[in-house]
Specification:
Shape: globular
Oligomer: single chain
Helix content: over 70%
Order of helices and strands: HHHHHH
Radius of gyration: 17 Å
Distance between the termini: 24 Å
Number of helices: 6
Length: about 120
């Protein structure tokens, strides 16, 4: 899931380098397809790993935290792009999520959790 999310952001680098609309559309389509897959996996994990009595609260908090950074990033990206240009902004947007994903996999116990709690068919 994390590699799908992080790797799915790599096509954003095309937006900083491309000058053709078709290349930009293809990159955004690929980015959306890959990151949407990670979202489906995340929703499934929430439903599998969170106790049913707490699922509403945890899902609400997850949604709130996920979206709370959006206004801040939107406010910052304009001045940053004005100062350094859009190419570096899109490059950071492409590489930073993959870096965070690799670090999360390396430093967290995510692989062990997947082994301890494998996906099985619903009964």
């Amino acid at each position: 899931m994390l590699l799908t999310w992080g790797g799915g952001c790599l096509p954003l680098a095309v937006l900083g380098a491309a000058d053709q609309l078709g290349a930009m559309i293809a990159a955004l389509f690929l980015c959306g397809a890959l990151t949407s897959g990670a979202g489906v996996i995340w929703g499934t994990l929430l439903q599998r790993r969170v106790p049913p009595a707490m699922l509403g609260r945890v899902s609400s908090l997850d949604f709130f935290v996920s979206l709370s950074a959006a206004p801040l990033s939107m406010a910052l990206v304009g001045p940053v792009a004005a100062a350094w240009g859009s190419r570096p902004v899109f490059l950071v947007a492409a590489v930073a999520p993959l870096t965070v994903a690799v670090l999360a996999i390396a430093l967290a116990r995510l692989r062990r959790d997947e082994i301890d709690h494998p996906l099985t068919r619903a009964r």
